[in-house]
Known about the structure:
This protein is mainly alpha-helical. Among the domains are: 1-41 and 416-456 and 471-507, no CATH class; 203-370. It is built from 15 helices and 4 strands. Strands 2-3-1-4 form a 4-stranded antiparallel β-sheet. The relative contact order is 0.16.
Amino acid sequence: MYLLPEQIPKALMTESFHSRRLVVAIFVIVNAVAITAGLLWTKVYTASTSILVDERNIIQPLMQGAAVATDAMDRSKNAREVIFGRKVMDVVLEYGGWLKAKPSVEEREFLIEEIKKRTFISTVGKNILRIEYRDDDPERAFRVTEKFAELFMQESIAAKAAESSAAFDFIEKQTQDYQDKLTRTEGELKELRSSNLDARPGAEGEVTTRLNDLNKRLDATMQELREAEVRETSLERQVSGEAESTADVFREGQFRTRIAELQTKLDTLRLSYRDTHPDIVQVKQQMQDLTDQLNAPRARPEKTKRSDESAVNNPVYQQLRREQSQNESMIDALKARISELQRQSQEEVSRGKRMHSGDARLAELTRDYQVNRDIYQDLLRRRENARVSMNLDRDRQGLSFKIQEPATLPQSPGGPRFLHFVLGGILLGVLIPLGLLYLRLQFDPRVRVGSQISVAHRLPIITVVPHLWTAGELKSLRAELVLLTFVVVATIAASGAISAMRLMRVL
Length: 507
C-alpha cells in the first residue's frame, strides 16, 4: 500500500495500537535476549606494551663502515615470526598456566592457535613495535603481554648475535678456503716456472725483441759476407793477373839472358870457325828456339814453378796475397758468425715454442691467482668487519630494545559492556516492531487511510466513519493497556536492576 511520507507516522501509530500485544511481546523478548547476551558475553581484557628499537646509539657513528647494524624495520616485520615461534609459544603456555591441566598435543596446538588469534602485533611510527594481547583474565593478559615483550627482546638479541656469529664463521671459512687456493696456485706457479724458466710475464716480448735483433744482425752479416765474397773474387783475379805478369817478365828475362849468352858464344866461335861449323849451326839453332819461345803467348808448364818463385818476390803480388788472406779470414769469420746467429735464432724460436706451450697454463694460473688474491683481500676486510659486528652484538651494543610503554594490568574489559546490551535491547525492542509494522504496511493491500481511495480510484470521499467502542470494549481495552504498560515498565525496571547489580559486581 502506497503511503505519503506524512501519512506513515499516523499509520504506524494505528498499526501499533491494533498490534499492541505483538509489539509488547517483541519488546520483552528482544530485551530478554539482549540482557542474556550481556550476561553471557565474555569479558575481554586487553594489555599492550610498546618496544622501542634503538638503532642509533653512541657506538654507531664510531663504528660506521666497520660493522653492520640490524635494521629496526626488518625486526618489526619479523616480530610476528619471532613471537609466534614454537619456542616462544611453549614458554608462554607454561607461563600463562595453560599447561597445568596437562593438555594433549592436539589441545596444545589449539591453545597456541587461540593465543595467536588474540595477539596483535603492529608498528607504531618507525622504530616502535606494539604488542597487544587479549584474554578473559586481566592478570593473565598482563603477564602474557609482559612475557611476550621479554621473550621477543631476548630472541631478537640472541638471533642477532647468532646471525653475526654465523656470518663471521662463514666468512672465516671462505677466507681459509681462498687462502688454501692461493697457496695451491702459488705452488703451481712456482713449479711451472721452475720447469719452464721462460714461462714468466714479459717473456714473449723478450723473445720477439731478441729474434728481431738476431734477424737484423744475421741480415747485416750476410750482407758483409756477400761483399767479402765479391772482394775475394776480385782479389783472386788481381792475384792471378799479377802472377802471370811476373811469370812473363821472368821468362822473358831468362830467354834474353840465354840468348845473350848464346850470342856471346856465337861471337867467340866465329872468331875460330866459319858459320857452317856444326857448333855455330847448333848455337844459331838454339838462339832461334829461344827467340821462338820468347815470342810465344804463354810460358811452358815446366817453367811455372820458377815463375811462381819469381812472383813471390814481387811486392804488389805480396800485398794482394795479404789482402786475399785477410779477406778469406773475414769470410770464414762471417760464415762462423752467420752459423752462430742462425743457431741463436733457432734457439730463440725453440724457446718461443716452449714458452707458448706453457703460456696458456701460466696465464690461467696467473689469472686465478689475481682473482683469488682480490677476493681473499676483500674477505679479510669483511672478516674483520664481521668480527667487530659480532663483538658489538655480543656486548649488546649493535641493536638495543627499550620498553617504551610497559604493560599494565587492565582494569576494565574491552568491547561492548553490559549497559550497552541493555540500552541496545531497549532501542531494538522499539525499532524491530516498528520495522515489522512498516513492512506490513508496504506489502498489505488493505486500505488503512481514506485518501488512498481517492488516489487509487479517483473518487471523492465524503466522510470516514471511525470505529465505535462499546462500554465493555473500552473497559477491557483500558485493562489491557494498563497490563501492557506494566509489562513494558517491568521489563525496563528489570534491565535497570540487573545493570545495577552488574555494576556492583553482584552478577
